[in-house]
Write a structure and sequence with these properties.
The chain has twelve helices and 17 strands. The protein has 399 residues and is of the alpha/beta class. Helix 2 runs parallel beside helix 12 and helix 6 packs antiparallel against helix 7.
Length: 399
């Protein structure tokens, strides 16, 4: 049986100290939210399923394809067709191939993105990590269920807006509803992340979006309050991670080149704040580790680190060697693009200053720092949904 109606508002990438620009939201109860080591692609399944990446196994967009078979396997017959020095040609090729041949094979949020700055001879090694959208049935294989599946399976009356294109994440495009007809209302906001990347979160442009967000939250909160009363509903507003202004850019290819090592001869995946390597032998592994020691801003993740960060000990996901950068430092020339114009980034270690998200509620919050899985558990508890998985959830009700 339903416990209370819930108003959920998610805003991508809002850091905890941005509450200073959101007076109404700040007037409610709030605590920092600890993110995970990774990008939004691993944050979302964590907050929608109540478990960490070591259980849901969603780590990065591009991973090493199991059994060496991925969407571009056939291209291994033409390893030198597109030169590495021309990533624009590679981008066009991967874009049109994914659009016309791969579009129906998978429907995740990120889709089959363009491949840049990765030698074509390695394209047959890669595959995407998720194959369905967050709100689709069986998003995670096995017994793990998302909040979206649970509300459907429990005949919960719900309304979700802005989770999909064409209005994905735009505040002014949200389709609001009167709360008296719904058990759960969920509004998804993404433009806070994009404006932060482009201008930094505390720039005039970023602050303007935060103020607009605060006004939206105030309006929808009061709408619920008029219908249900002050104590008649639970309000949860959260973000998946923070944002950190970029202070330094690293061209890893140039870095290796200056040390007489051609990185394009090794299968690797460079993301904005991480790099993963799959060396061919121990000698190559030692060379890479020796060179990466000179990148003072990078840290090699050990097996112990994987465990403490709740990451799966799976080399297909995290590589034989997995490094992350300290806050405020990024790689350019990544598998997703060039990154030269980006002003702010996320995807850092959960303890990096400025990388905390936020968790806000009209209820007392019984933890000083909540986690992404806590979002799921708190929502499920408030809605009174039946869920008895065969595994232990990593989140708990914090309200």
């Amino acid at each position: 049986m339903k416990k209370k109606p819930v108003l959920s508002i998610f805003a991508d990438g809002v850091r905890f100290d941005s509450l200073q620009f959101m007076p109404f939201t700040k007037s409610l109860n709030s605590v920092p939210l600890e993110t995970v080591l990774g990008y939004s692609i691993t944050c979302h399944p964590s907050m929608y399923t109540g478990v960490y990446p070591n259980k849901h196994k969603i780590a990065f967009h591009w991973i090493k394809g199991r059994k060496e078979k991925g969407p571009y396997t056939f291209l291994s017959y033409f390893p030198d067709f597109f030169p590495f020095s021309n990533p624009y040609v590679q981008a066009v090729a991967s874009h049109f191939y994914s659009k016309f041949f791969l579009k129906k094979k998978a429907s995740p949020f990120m889709g089959y993105g363009k491949l840049l700055n990765l030698p074509m001879k390695f394209w047959n090694h890669v595959d995407i990590n998720e194959f369905k959208y967050w709100d689709e049935d069986n998003y995670i294989n096995g017994d793990i269920k998302t909040i979206f599946e649970l509300v459907r399976n429990n005949d919960c009356k719900f309304h979700i807006s802005n989770l999909h294109k064409p209005n994905l994440g735009k505040i002014d495009a949200i389709q609001v509803v009167e709360p008296d007809s719904y058990d759960w209302v969920y509004y998804f906001i993404g433009e806070t992340d994009s404006v932060s990347h482009n201008f930094t979160q505390h720039s005039p442009e970023g602050i303007a979006v935060l103020e607009n967000l605060d006004n939206f939250i105030k309006k929808e909160y009061n709408r619920f309050k008029r219908v249900h009363g002050e104590d008649g509903f639970d309000f949860i507003f959260w973000s998946d991670h923070g944002h950190i202004s970029i202070e330094k850019q690293i061209d890893l290819y140039d870095f290796f080149r200056k040390r007489s090592f051609n990185l394009k001869n090794v299968f690797h995946l460079v993301d904005s704040t991480t790099v993963r390597f799959w060396p061919r032998n121990e000698s190559e592994k030692e060379q890479i580790m020796e060179i990466m020691q000179d990148v003072s801003e990078a840290k090699l993740v050990s097996n112990e680190d994987l465990e403490s960060l709740h990451l799966a000990p799976d080399s297909n996901l995290y590589g034989e060697l997995f490094y992350y950068l300290k806050g405020g430092v990024v790689f350019i020339y990544t598998i997703h693009g060039f990154g030269k114009e980006t002003k702010s980034m996320h995807g850092y270690h959960p303890d990096a200053q400025g990388n905390d998200g936020l968790f806000v509620s009209n209820r007392r919050i019984n933890k000083s720092r909540v986690t992404l899985p806590d979002v799921f558990s708190s929502t499920v508890t408030s809605l009174g949904l039946e869920y008895k998985p065969s595994f232990e959830l990593d989140g708990e009700n914090v309200l």
